[in-house]
Design goal:
The complex is a heterodimer of chains A (416) and B (269).
Chain A (H helix, E strand, L loop, with lengths): L2 H4 L9 E2 L2 E5 L2 H18 L2 H15 L5 E3 L1 H7 L3 E6 L9 H14 L4 E6 L3 H13 L2 E7 H6 L1 H9 L3 E5 L6 H14 L4 E4 L9 H9 L1 H14 L5 E6 L3 H7 L9 E9 L10 H4 L1 E5 L1 E6 L24 H9 L2 E7 H15 L5 H13 L8 E6 L7 H8 L7 H9 L1
Helix pairs in contact in A: 3-5, 5-6, 5-10, 6-8, 10-12, 11-12, 15-16
Chain B lengths: L5 H12 L4 E7 L5 H13 L5 E4 L10 H12 L4 H14 L5 E5 L1 H7 L1 H11 L3 E4 L8 H8 L4 E2 L1 E3 L5 H10 L4 E4 L12 H12 L6 E4 L5 H10 L2 E4 L1 H8 L6 H17 L1
Classes of the chains: A alpha/beta (416), B alpha/beta (269).
């Protein structure tokens, strides 16, 4: 272990990760954040809270999620062995539920009868609506009006679960505007309402709290990998939009300096085209949504529109802890384009019988790029953060009937 | 070194001597057009305002309601940014040396320009105060130092949920005046309870020894009058923006002047 990261203890008491993070919100929200901070600290120190959280993860979510050796894919690529952390097998189909259960339990503990959430593609909205139903809380989900149209199925799922979906028409009508609108609701209804933020962004304590609730992913890997292969992997890969699934799997690996941490951002149509969501790769530090972090912004400091084939990565900022991990050199961040992610999506479908979320496909794509350059005894662990059922319409529209033909069937076709 | 916000101090001293309260309008630079902002500022002075708050357009105004966000969006469509705001103040100062100008906005455009670059440009333009909505005292030590050294007042918000500890924290950092947000919520929301405001202002005045202004939810002269009985200044924002929205390019300046003049007479009556 490297001494530098052994005693990793960010954030500090004020929510800073080096120069990043913090509490950059108007005075109107400071009291609510202070209350949340105190209550979260109390909950973390209460064995009853921790026990209930763990019981819910086991019996409601289905944890621990397995790690699966993608052997056919690894053999075809001819290099490093690829292992998948199967967060796609969780209840509701992604890692998002780990965090929403934690926050909903906290909301209940604080006596808040109403929860609100922002959502882009709808995954966090569905996870929030799910736990609201589970614990009997009122739930309002803010969603950009364009996303409401594009993700009609998830909107219907949220309604089935009893949530009210509010279309947001302000600004660029996407995830960032949904977050602005949810903040406005919170500041107006702060006494009755708990705001469930879906990623490791927002003001302190959210980046820390969302990371903590998701860190169960990396904790499980720390014991599962030695059981499977007798050691830890050479690298851990995860997609990064806001960065909650990546922080979840990275966090417990931070002190393990011989394990590379690789975050895969949405390169969209290519970073050079400007149509992407790669804040760490191509952005600059600034202040948005209550924290200082890397942002995609113009020369005037206005936040610019982002693009990705996966709505869940379509965000102009990124969690402040990732900003620190980048600057400190502990984690590496790369951009993976839409086409590469789509190709990885198809290949995993046909080679392993697993339909990944388009978000997670970005991490699979990077692993597919790296594996052939590595030896067969090296190991890549990919966080398969969600399943792709929600992406059927997007993939069908982009790919039609252009499916991946894996090498074994190519050979069969040629011999016929 | 000039004292922080000395034009602001002079304005409040004059008002105290006249037994009047300050009227502070808010407009966003570039709304409805960049060319209208300067004539609007001069019209506001003519209508009897004491300090002008100029909104710096931002793409993600988290603490503002839909009315002020729309003003920001109209300005952003024309590409108006922090540089244009500073040019506007420079032009205003060529003919007006007395009315204090306060910039109100969000942290990111300032950080993008660079704090020191902004501070130099602001003092050169003749800016008297800055209110950065998402820079609470605990995140703005650098801003406060940069502004103090150039004689620009750093203005802070307080809200109905601010505890005594937070009021004390703001009291230590605040220069010029303190802006009390009279409602839970965003700009442009609901109506205010003036009795409740009065109680909170008394609590704030026990800790803060500079003037206290009140904003959010002041939509008519009668309310402005009631608020001016308990506060040192009345801030009018969303109501003016709505007047701008419902006006044409030909009558917008006159309409805003008439509206603000109405607030002035109600407060002085």
């Amino acid at each position: 272990m490297n001494k530098r990261f052994e005693a990793y203890s960010f954030p500090d008491a004020a929510g800073h990760f080096g120069p990043y993070g913090g509490t950059f919100v108007a005075e109107t929200l400071q009291a609510a954040l202070l209350e949340l901070n105190l209550e979260y600290a109390k909950a973390q120190a209460d064995p009853a809270f921790i026990t209930e959280f763990q019981r819910e993860l086991k019996h409601y979510v289905g944890r621990p999620s397995p790690i699966y050796h993608a052997k056919r894919l690894s053999d075809e690529l001819g290099g490093a062995q690829i292992y998948l952390k199967r967060e796609d097998l969780n209840h509701t189909g992604a890692h998002k539920i780990n965090n929403t259960i934690g926050q909903a339990l906290l909301a209940r503990r604080m006596g808040k009868p109403r929860v609100i959430a922002e959502t882009g593609a709808g995954q966090h909205g569905v996870a929030s609506a799910t736990v609201a139903a589970r614990y009997g809380l009122d739930c309002v989900v803010y969603m950009g009006i364009d996303d409401v149209r594009r993700q009609a199925q998830n909107v219907y799922r949220m309604k089935l679960l009893g949530a009210t979906v509010v279309p947001v028409e302000s600004g660029s009508r996407t995830l960032k505007d949904a977050l602005n609108e949810a903040m406005r609701d919170w500041v107006t209804n702060v006494e009755s309402t708990f705001y469930i933020i879906g990623t490791v962004a927002g003001p302190h304590p959210y980046p820390m709290m969302v990371r903590d609730f998701n860190s169960v992913v990396g904790k499980e890997c720390l014991t599962q990998m030695p059981e499977m292969i007798g050691r830890q992997p050479d690298a851990v890969l995860a997609c990064v939009g806001g960065g909650s699934n990546a922080m979840g799997i990275f966090f417990d690996y931070i002190p393990h300096d011989n394990v590379r941490l690789i975050g895969c951002e949405a390169g969209g149509e290519g970073v050079a085209t400007g149509k992407h969501s790669a804040s760490l790769t191509a952005g600059t530090p600034g202040v948005l949504h209550g924290n200082r972090t890397y942002l995609l912004q113009d020369a005037n400091g206005q936040i610019i529109d982002t693009h990705s084939v996966s709505a869940g990565l379509d965000y102009p900022g990124v969690g402040p802890e990732h900003a620190w991990l980048k600057d400190s050199g502990r984690a590496e961040y790369v951009a993976v384009n839409d086409d590469e992610a789509l190709a990885a999506f198809h290949r995993l479908c046909r080679t392993e019988g697993i339909i990944p979320a388009l978000e997670s496909s970005h991490a699979v794509a990077e692993a597919m790029k790296m594996a052939p350059t590595m030896s067969k005894d090296q190991v890549l662990l990919v966080n398969l953060s969600g399943r792709g059922d929600k992406d059927m319409a997007t993939v069908a529209e982009r790919s039609g009937l252009q499916f991946f033909c894996r090498p074994s069937c190519q050979a069969a076709a040629e011999s016929r | 070194m000039a004292r922080a916000g000395s034009r602001i101090e002079a304005a409040f001293a004059r008002l105290a001597a006249e037994h009047r309260k300050a009227l502070i309008p808010f407009i966003t630079v570039g709304d409805p057009t960049l060319a209208t902002t300067l004539p609007l500022m001069h019209e506001l002075v003519k209508a009897g305002v004491d300090i002008i708050e100029l909104g710096v357009p931002f793409s993600d105004p988290m603490a503002d309601g839909p009315v002020i966000q729309r003003a920001s969006e109209r300005a952003l469509k024309q590409g108006v940014g922090l540089n244009d705001v500073l040019v506007c103040v420079t032009q205003f100062r060529t003919t007006n040396q007395t009315t204090p100008v306060v910039l109100m906005g969000y942290a990111n455009p300032i950080e993008r320009m660079g704090l020191e670059v902004f501070a130099d440009a602001a003092v050169a333009a003749g800016v008297d105060g800055v209110l950065v909505v998402d820079y609470p005292p605990e995140e703005s030590a650098a801003l406060l130092a940069a502004m103090d050294s150039r004689g620009i007042a750093t203005i802070y918000l307080l809200s109905p949920t601010s505890s005594t500890e937070r009021i004390k924290l703001v009291a230590m950092a605040a220069r010029g005046y303190v802006y009390y947000v009279s409602l839970k919520g965003v700009t442009g929301a609901g109506n205010i309870d003036t009795q409740e405001v009065g109680r909170k202002i008394a609590e704030i005045k026990a800790e803060v020894n500079i003037p206290v202004g009140v904003g959010f939810g002041i939509r008519d002269g009668a309310t402005a009058r009631l608020v001016s009985e308990v506060a040192d200044a009345v801030v009018i924002g969303s109501r003016i923006i709505q007047e701008i929205e419902s006006s044409t390019p030909d009558n917008v300046v006159a309409n805003v002047g008439k509206l603000v003049g109405g607030f002035r007479s109600a407060m002085d009556a």
